[in-house]
Amino acid sequence: xxxxxxxxxxxxxxxxxxxxxxxxxxxxxxxxxxxxxxxxxxxxxxxxxxxxxxxxxxxxxxxxxxxxxxxxxxxxxxxxxxxxxxxxxxxxxxxxxxxxxxxxxxxxxxxxxxxxxxxxxxxxxxxxxxxxxxxxxxxxxxxx
Length: 144
Description:
about 140 residues; Lipocalin
């Protein structure tokens, strides 16, 4: 057997392995791509702020999630953003402007900026999340 043939075969095997690893990483990043229905439920707060539920669509492209409830920049709006890791873990960032003070912790005025994080987990066509700051909230994600 010629040394050049062995070397070419070894190089070919390395290139093939790298291509397969790259395809696996891309599949991991894209496995959650699509449209998701988000149901975000926040319980009543200790200070008496009323509970609420927001339901809205979010899109995932290359593992990056973005969704909006309401109109960004207006009262009672929320935007949700973050990256879903290939193993399904995600730390999502929620931010927006408050609406009716009845639902706001501390009864802050409408159009007050707020933000918090949702520790989330996705698997197949389903996901869940838990708010990390201030008041208890949970999210359910369903792939459409």
